[in-house]
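Sequence in, structure out.
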Amino acid sequence: MKKLMMIAAFMVAAVSANAQFEPGTFSIQPKVGGIISKVSNMPNLNLSQFNLSNTTIDRSFYAGALIGAEFEYQIAQPFSVAAGLNFAMQGCQWEDFEVKEGDDYAKVKDLKMELNYLNIPIVANVYLFKGFAIKTGVQLGFLLSAKFKANNETKIGDLVHKEEGSQDIKDDCKKFDVSIPIGISYQVPTIPIYIDGRYNLGLTNINKDGDVNYKNQVFQLTVGYKFAL
């Protein structure tokens, strides 16, 4: 029993030592997580053009996902720099709405603008204490696809009609995006599980034409496994 305890203690100590990532070492962190995003200045939708003057669809937040990896170089005990590559599902969404007249109705669900990016974050980390860091830097984004989507359902009498609509708007959007990531991260003691939360403040007007500035605003929370190279 004592030998087993000694072996277990040695393994925990070894993992803990590897998790410290001494100055001059490189590490990689595959990660996956979720995104909550919106696009600034995106208006509520007024349906007056459809003779629905009292109907307005309010904006909501878009929920997406992120998958990627980040490479980190430990410059000194409290400082490191990191660069990553990830696929991010961003965008904005509007609330579902329904118009009824007797038993008849018209519904619109999942009205959203989907913006898929390949992002390259470059950040500096400052470790305030072991495992806990604050970070900021710059993120470069490359637009992969942009679409408006909605699910429609109408009922008139006994007839019910459902339709899924999609419109490609990539040509109306800028292909390159710049944002400022600001966040914190924490590495779980004894094991290299890494939790990272960031807010990405968009600087680029994603609207190719027009006077209104539409900018990405993204909060992301990821979990990764960090190990030395």
